[in-house]
Amino acid sequence: FGTMKVDNNGILEIGGCSVLDLKREFGTPLYVIDENLVRNTCRVFKNNFSLDGLNTEVIYASKAFLNIAMCKLINEEGLSIDVVSGGELYTALKANFPPARMYMHGNNKTVQELTLAVESGVGRIIVDNNHEIDLLEDICRSLNKTMTVLLRINPGIEAHTHEYIQTTKHDSKFGESIYSDEILNIVNRLSNSNYLDFKGFHCHIGSQIFEEESFFLGASAMIEFAAKIKDECNFTVEELNLGGGFGVYYSNEDKPMNLEKFLKELAILVKSKSKDLGLESPKFMIEPGRSIISNAGTTLYEVGSTKSTYGGKNYIFIDGGMTDNPRPALYSAKYEGAIANKMNKENEVNYTIAGKCCESGDMIIKDIKLPKTESGDIVAVFSTGAYNYSMASNYNRLPKPPVLFVKDGKARIVVKRETYEDIIRNDVF
Ligand code: LLP
Predict the structure, then answer these.
(1) Is 71 a catalytic site residue?
(2) Does 35-293 carry CATH code 3.40.50.170?
(3) What is the ipTM of this complex?
(4) Nearest CA to 65 among 310, 204, 248?
(5) Could you say which residues bind pyridoxal 5'-phosphate here (predicted)?
(6) Pocket test for ligand 1, best of 290, 330, 331, 387 (most atoms within 8 A of CB)
(7) Cys-Cys with 86: which of 113, 186, 229, 395 at CB 3.0–4.6 Å?
């Protein structure tokens, strides 16, 4: 992916930096982000989800990977940002991300989170339910402010992906179903609110989805619903946010779509469909997270022990594991990897790459053919940019790895390695 290369000695390079140098200078485990690839992907989204006469916006779903440096990059590339908690909002504010381009999500935002969002002037809050609308109106009343909102709806499109990351079945915890008895009441309530400036709807049909058709169906359902609202509530929808979920390559089981072609087709579809249904072309937003950052991330580990079991299994033990990448344990996610200092050697041994946590499920890759591996070798696991660093934990009190941005032969730490001091920082003596 991106700027990855192998040098004449069989050493992997990312962003022009040799992994041997990175290991020497920064240690392992190490999250390495190919900055040019992230920037190019942002541009692919911006340049292709656009069409003459169509107002569009690309919003980065920051839950995939967020820190101050990433906020700055996203701002420089002209994307907006989606935050789902006080912590994500706080990070973006501290990075001086323009609040007007922030979108605040969540199915159970607290009063503190909503207050912080209103006080800091975030562009949109995506409201989830009646109770939250009550809270938000109260906050706006007491601060004497109005807040622009979208309503999260559930268009009932079922996308093919892992059960935990499917969001739009009828019983989803997110948003209000377009088929519910309550939906028109909520719409009327929002459009008549003194404190809320209601602009339209949001949906997100799931994550790691490969079927273009699911997105087209979701977009069509949103536009049809906007047309229905125009007829039944006499309310003109100005904005439709179609969410994210665009699937990426992790292993040869994954067949990502051609992003450029897909985005262009999506833009054409939403423009023509809204015209056909007599809508004055609303603004359309999309919210990619994983597809912006996933392929740009590589995790580097050092091999400690290797072990061949009585049962015939060959293990490679790495100095990280489910703490820095919980996705295999959580979703049975598959990854590809390599011995990054032996890229020119033949893959001849069947290995399982296991982490150092005290449980058997801590495996990062099962059954992968690699060159004969020994202690001190470097394991690279690919496409770890999304939902690895952001979902990392301190299980077994392991400090979290640092995050490194590499670009044109230069590396810069953007998140420092945690220390044992960090581990006990909030413990009370
Ligand atoms: N917008 C909303 C409202 C979302 O809930 C999400 C993801 C996104 C956008 C971005 O979706 P993406 O483009 O990244 O697929 N931890 C799981 C993924 C959970 C996704 C949750 N929502 C994983 O590691 O696969």
Answers:
(1) no
(2) no
(3) 0.99
(4) 248
(5) 245, 287-290, 387
(6) 290
(7) 113
